[in-house]
Amino acid sequence: MNSEIEAIERNDTWELTELPLGSKVTGVKWVYKMKLNENGEVDKYKARLVTKGYSQKYGVDYAEVFVPVARLDTIRVVISLAAQKGWTIYQLDVKSAFLHGELNEEVFVTQPPGYEKTGHEHKVYKLKKALYGLKQAPRAWYSRIETYFDNEGFKKCPYEHTLFIKTANGGKVLFVCLYVDDLMFTGNDEVMFKDFKRSMMIEFDMTDLGKMKYFLGIEVLQRPDGVFIGQRKFAQECLTGSKWINVIQCIIQ
Hints:
This protein is α+β, with helices and mostly antiparallel strands and 253 residues long. It has helices at residues 2-10, 72-85, 137-151, 190-203, 232-241; strands at residues 14-17, 25-26, 28-36, 42-51, 89-94, 108-109, 124-127, 155-157, 160-168, 172-179, 182-187, 206-211, 214-215, 218-223, 226-230. Residues 11-242 form the Reverse transcriptase Ty1/copia-type domain. This is ADP glucose pyrophosphorylase large subunit 1.
């Protein structure tokens, strides 16, 4: 919880103020979850501060909300291309991605439970950037990162708005596929990889996950003889849930 508040304040997401007369305030709450790795083991525990976006009204508190995400077919095509070319696929994760989205609307939220400012308990926070739970938060984040890619010289695929491509002299190319706050990228030039990661980490708070191993529930094994994908963890969960985990295995030919 402390790290979440620190991330919000470090990102200059809000400012404490009096609630203007006639303005609406939206509540906030804490949400807790476990993040698992490709083996189904606990990777980390996460506390997220979210707004009670269900209280927002369309046309009053927000307007546009749609945001594209990469289709599974697109992800498979990029993986297949990397396998054919012998390219390595890497992965990045944007920490608290929605906190980077800039708001066009005026939004006020209550102070987080357990983190009220002593002597200023009656005040509220005016949001400069989005918080999780806001109806417009995904849209604000996508607009933010889309602008970043455009400024960095990437071209957006006209048929897949979460696939960004950058080219350079000598046939160098970099593909980036975006699914909300998860990014996979591949290409044929290590210098472009390093420049891209360095630029992203300057612009956003990132986690470098190295070679892609687990993406959107898909396990990825990269070897010299190809790239192999599967869902062993999901299969084990299905077997465990149906109490078939200990049955005798039978190979079907």
